[in-house]
Specification:
Largest sheet: 5 strands, antiparallel
Radius of gyration: 23 Å
Distance between the termini: 69 Å
Number of strands: 5
Number of helices: 3
Length: 189
């Protein structure tokens, strides 16, 4: 005798399928949560090593500045501050462009690293290449103009990707402004 299809049977079947799928998703989430967190922590540490002078320890804090929340890192060697890093973002052509910008203790840009972006491959995505990023190494915004050349600055824009280039410069500029704000010691544990 075959089970007759009616509202009660369909509802019960859908509910069982939903519970099984929910249980499977919860299991997979629990299983992958730690490896994902470890991978994210490694990515952050690798970015910190790239964008700051050599350090022995680092402290992290979250700071609200001009209506935005920033992750700020202070690098120490012994008890001396050797640098800072800020996770900063700006709106690029394909969406938010998220960078980690490192500074030495004097507030000069040490280096930058792209953490996340959605720019056009072959165009805006070139912001991840060394040729573009190297323009920011040892860049002192206190004495040089932090803008693309099209806007009167010293940064050469990526060909056909002025929006991405401006977003990158804006993210670096936002990080610089924050560092100037916090250099008095507000970037702490």
């Amino acid at each position: 005798m075959a089970v007759r299809s009616n509202f009660k049977n369909m509802t019960l079947c859908l509910m069982v399928i939903g519970l099984v799928c929910s249980a499977l998703l919860a299991f997979v989430n629990q299983l992958t949560q730690e490896p994902i967190a470890a991978a994210q922590e490694k990515k952050t540490l690798d970015a910190l090593k790239k964008v700051m002078p050599d350090f022995e320890q680092v402290s992290e804090s979250e700071i609200e500045y001009e209506g935005q929340n920033y992750h700020c890192y202070k690098a120490l060697s012994d008890t001396t501050v050797v640098g800072y890093a800020v996770v900063s973002s700006a709106m690029g052509f394909g969406g938010p462009l998220e960078l980690m910008v490192g500074f030495d203790a004097q507030g000069v840009v040490w280096n930058t690293s792209v953490l996340a972006m959605n720019e056009t491959p072959g165009l805006g995505a070139k912001c991840t290449e060394t040729d573009f990023q190297s323009q920011f190494e040892k860049f002192d915004p206190a004495i040089r103009s932090l803008a693309v050349t099209k806007d009167g600055g010293e940064i050469d824009a990526i060909t056909a990707s002025t929006i991405t280039s401006r977003a990158y410069v804006q993210a670096v500029s936002n990080a610089y402004k924050l560092i100037q704000h916090i250099k008095g010691g507000q970037c702490h544990e």
